[in-house]
Amino acid sequence: MEPSERADRPVGINDVAARAGVSAGTVSNVLNRPERVSEATRRRVERAIEELDYVRNSSGRNLRSGRSDSIGLVVLDVTNPFFTEVAQGVEDVAAEDGLAVVLLNSAERGDRQRRSARLLAEQRAAGAVVMPVDGDTADLLWLRKQGVSGVLLDRGDVGPEVACSVSVDNLAGGAAAARHLIGLGHERITFLSGPEGLEQCRTRLQGLREGLAEVGLDPEAAVRVVHTAQLNAESGEKAVEEVLAGGPGRRPTAVFCANDQLALGVLKGLGERGLSAPSDLSVVGYDDVATASLVHPGLTTVAQPKYELGCAAMRLLLGELNDPDHTHERVRYTPELVVRGSTAVNRR
Amino acid sequence: MEPSERADRPVGINDVAARAGVSAGTVSNVLNRPERVSEATRRRVERAIEELDYVRNSSGRNLRSGRSDSIGLVVLDVTNPFFTEVAQGVEDVAAEDGLAVVLLNSAERGDRQRRSARLLAEQRAAGAVVMPVDGDTADLLWLRKQGVSGVLLDRGDVGPEVACSVSVDNLAGGAAAARHLIGLGHERITFLSGPEGLEQCRTRLQGLREGLAEVGLDPEAAVRVVHTAQLNAESGEKAVEEVLAGGPGRRPTAVFCANDQLALGVLKGLGERGLSAPSDLSVVGYDDVATASLVHPGLTTVAQPKYELGCAAMRLLLGELNDPDHTHERVRYTPELVVRGSTAVNRR
DNA sequence: CATCGCCATTGACACGTTTCAATGCCGCCT
DNA sequence: AGGCGGCATTGAAACGTGTCAATGGCGATG
């Protein structure tokens, strides 16, 4: 057996150069600007690369260029299908330009978001797509100050003078839910919200109220708000009791949840009490995650274009990276109501 | 306003050194071995770091050390909650040791798995946790040859002489499902499998057969296999027709699905035909994803310790990274059946 | 035949960090 | 007082790559 590996020292560009009988610079050219090197030597170099199993060292490369060729995607909860679908969109578009995507999970925690931002800055990431915790854009701005272009996605808000952003019109989403429920004759609606202070929830609630006001209903009287600790199914399930109990007025005939996860929890909670949607309570969710169409009855929900959201964000980022004098853009989608079985006309 | 940023050249360790009136080496020491530097200078350096907003460049650091401090996690489908829960486990354990996790999505495609492996090799990742596409461990082995320690997770198989691995006993899982269904009086069972050739599916099926044989039933007569194109809900929904049609014998009274996603699709498909589990068909899934407990009826399923799987894999990897003379281990979990409403005694 | 220009290739340097042997300083012991 | 040990700090080298001005060879042109 021949000594195929002369030493355990990793093989570098110089080893390849030696083997092919050329200089290191030429090898680098073969890798990065193949057109500048003659056919013959290019083949010799390529063979050497293959024979030595050379893989280039991106530390060296990035050090030299001052920039890495991967972008970061900071997501609020890898476990939530909404975010992973967004991630798909980002990945697919990034792949078109040969950029690698590093998926980072802030788990809705400010400290982890900060850690992620630091990591990306240390790696001199080419860019970042950030869905900020609690709409806290400080880390995004810090990243930009460090020279890492960042795009804001889905939450939070910054002026178009500082960064690109992609969002969905939560006001319109809330209003769409309102119109749907009104059309079915519901006039006492509970809004099941997440933790207090989430801008996202507040806006959807406001949309709901405005939708009610549109047809002359008094939002204050018609809607009651219940807060939960987290935007997940468990919280939704626990909240059922409080939702059903009703407010100072009567028991509600419909509930509009800030989130599909919450809504799914509510559906489960109803089942456990021998009740069900829509006969005992009409239920509307928000997001249209895959599960929404799998449960029975299907969940009526305000659908967000998740995949497109990711694509759009990545496109904006690419635009900023490639175009030297780029001007920030704001892309805003309008959500669409998807009607399934969890809502029906009010019979009370 | 003072010129807070003298130039747009990024600030490096030398700028910090100059500002603090020390050498670059000392700054490096403050960062990496603070105990070697005197209290006074340490504070001076820390102040300079803060004032200049210095963040260290990991390219330089990694170049010097020959190794990066992040590990890669190659996952089959970011969209599937099973994998994201595993990812959580990996992340949490990695965080204990200050390692960053780069989540890469192979999307069940061999070429993307290869690309991911290449990326990790180029970055000289500290290690990798790989869930191989089709059990194809070639890329894992290649990574190891490149000096990147890799742990095998959930699928595929390599001897303990080449790498650590973590898996769940699919044979036992299949048998558990079998015993449950037999106990309920089912004797004609359809196994709803994924694409042909998936080792994972084959083993679960074999477990099912062995479970039946245990009580003297003829596996060949009792179980029929239906293949789907993908392991997702859509495929499951489409397969309902074929499942219900039954084989050369009678129509089945129960279906055991290779995957919760498939099972959820089946439940939906039944509903669309005015049928339901468990009265028309008992349904058993595999994985116990969150949705399994949210649908109505709840999905009886073979639960895998997803989070623990991720933790275990990362622990093994850490062990290999820290212990110079490390010997590979094989960790194997036993799944547990979770009984919910989608299965009942056979009344036919 | 001499000169010019073109093209492929080279060689050296820069990127930002870590490491390690060498330096200088101070206090302690004899 | 002189010498020695310990400790904080320094300076230079090294990591692997990309870039760019300089080099050398070759063919074409006058």
Q: Could you explain how this protein is built, in words?
A:
Chains A, B: GO terms for molecular function: DNA binding. Chains A, B: InterPro entries: HTH_LacI, LacI/GalR-like_sensor, Lambda_DNA-bd_dom_sf, Peripla_BP_I. The structure is a homodimer of 348-residue chains. The relative contact order of chain A is 0.12. The first copy, chain A, has 348 residues and is an alpha/beta fold. Chain A has 13 helices and 12 strands. The model of chain A is unreliable at 1-6 (pLDDT under 50). In chain A, the strands form 2 sheets. A 6-stranded parallel β-sheet of chain A has the order 2-1-3-4-5-11, with helices on both faces. In chain A, strands 7-6-8-9-10-12 form a 6-stranded mixed β-sheet, with helices on both faces. The first copy, chain A, has helices at residues 13-20, 24-32, 39-52, 58-65, 81-96, 110-122, 138-145, 170-183, 199-214, 219-222, 233-245, 260-272, 306-322; strands at residues 70-75, 100-105, 127-130, 149-153, 165-168, 189-193, 223-227, 254-257, 282-287, 300-303, 330-333, 336-338. In chain A, strand 8, helix 12 (260-272) and strand 9 (282-287) form a beta-alpha-beta unit. In chain A, helix 1 crosses helix 2 (24-32). Chain A binds a DNA duplex (30 and 30 nucleotides) through residues 10, 12-14, 22-26, 28-29, 31-32, 36-38, 41, 56-66.
